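EI: anyone free to look at a 208-residue chain?
SC: sure, send it
EI:
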Amino acid sequence: MKKNFAKKAVALMLSVIVPAFMAVADQAEALQKKLARLTSFQASFDQTVVDASNKLIQQGEGMLSLKQPSLFRFETQTPEPNLFVGDGKTLWFYAEVLDQVSIFDAKEQVQKTPFVLLTSHDPKLWAQYNVTGADELFDITPKDPGNAVKKLSLKFSGLALSQMVVMDSNGQNSTFDFNLVQYNTPLASELFQFAIPASAEVDDQRVK
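SC: here you go
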């Protein structure tokens, strides 16, 4: 049961739009250039989750940290403490209430979601998504119809992210409004590592 919870949580987190081809390519390039200038990002967030009928499901708070290339730390404080940490190779998910750590191959898991584009310049990854928008609002949709994330919307205030909206395959929307934003400031590499608590149950999902 705990293993299923971890998998669903990772899918939800990681589960943490298209005109003419040339126009799409230009829009994707515009977003890539904007993100390339965002070498690091850290902010607290307020999260609101609604279902397909816009009924409120959950509200929460947390902290997001990103650093080029491929480093992230996503921590929820309410409604319950959970932590996702990725160093580009390994993804740790720590469910504090259960005192359980699940370990995943970061490339295998993160690359299945448009979230990876926030810290990756890999053209092979960008080729898997359609990008529309300009200036301060972009929508990213997977070309794979089986992707659990149907749309990722990014809203910027200047160079920094101000809002992120994730729509999943069930029509559920998770909106993250960012506060106390800091960007292009030094972030310690240790922030993107995870020391497994001695008491924690470990579920290693990586292929040996």
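EI: The first helix runs from residue 2 to 13.
SC: 👍
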